[in-house]
Amino acid sequence: MHGSGKTRARAGLRRHRRTTVIGIICAAIALLITTPGVAGADDTPAIGSAYMGSTVLEHEGGNRQYREPTVTPLATVEGVDVSSHQGNVNWSSLWSSGVRFAYVKATEGTTYENPYFAQQYNGSYNVGMIRGAYHFALPNVSSGATQANFFASNGGGWSRDGKTLPGVLDIEYNPYGATCYGLSQSAMVNWIRDFLNTYYARTGRYAVIYSTTNWWTTCTGNYGGFANNHPLWIARYASSPGTLPNGWGFYTFWQYTSTGPIVGDHNLFNGAQDRLVALANG
């Protein structure tokens, strides 16, 4: 073989090797992306998959197995919160276990509606529970007013029937990105105010605020201006609810576990059954 031919052959071999190496690298990247449990683009949860407390254990830790709280008021009512993750719920079993109220995820952001909402919301009512709905907030996708209206129009409404609790603003760590959704503390307070004011205008009820003390301190600067009108639902998976956010002298609800018996996250209402009915009646 002439020298020029040998040179062309060696060049072709080098190109072949480069192509093979590139192919191996691309295949490895594709495998990383598509293999469950391996870090990759598909690890970001889908919008709509969040639920009340879905980010608490990751950020704050706590009991990972069901434990009944050891520090509770003298009068409490046991409740549960559910989302699409629970599917069709056996409400009779929950009632038999002592659960007397339920909150059901209705919406998230501006597009997601819980496909199991009707079974969960109506099913809890039909077995005798007092029930309400909650909205998982995404402050980075729209104004608070837009999301409050979306919530109120898709399950978050209220009626004075003695069995419908006021809606809940679920505002917690962002499961899809930056902890505070890219908002400053003042911008977050304004967003929350926009949501709460709009919800009140739509329903005549002050929404309950669900959060953790750590998130509230980090993302609102521990703002205390909502405490006078808006009941607090504190999340803490421990034997006591711990320190509350600024302004609230007591909690109305406490989510004390994410691994409750039968199904769903479990909660305590801070009061007797007649006080829960009073909250429902406004």
Automatic annotation (TrEMBL):
Q: What class of enzyme is it?
A: hydrolase
What reaction gets catalysed by this protein?
Hydrolysis of (1->4)-beta-linkages between N-acetylmuramic acid and N-acetyl-D-glucosamine residues in a peptidoglycan and between N-acetyl-D-glucosamine residues in chitodextrins
UniProt KW keywords: Glycosidase, Hydrolase
EC code: 3.2.1.17
List the SUPFAM superfamilies: (Trans)glycosidases (SSF51445)
For this protein, the parts annotated as crossing the membrane are: none
Superkingdom per UniProt:
Bacteria
One Pfam family linked to the record:
Glyco_hydro_25
What family is this? Belongs to the glycosyl hydrolase 25 family.
Q: What is this protein called?
A: Lysozyme
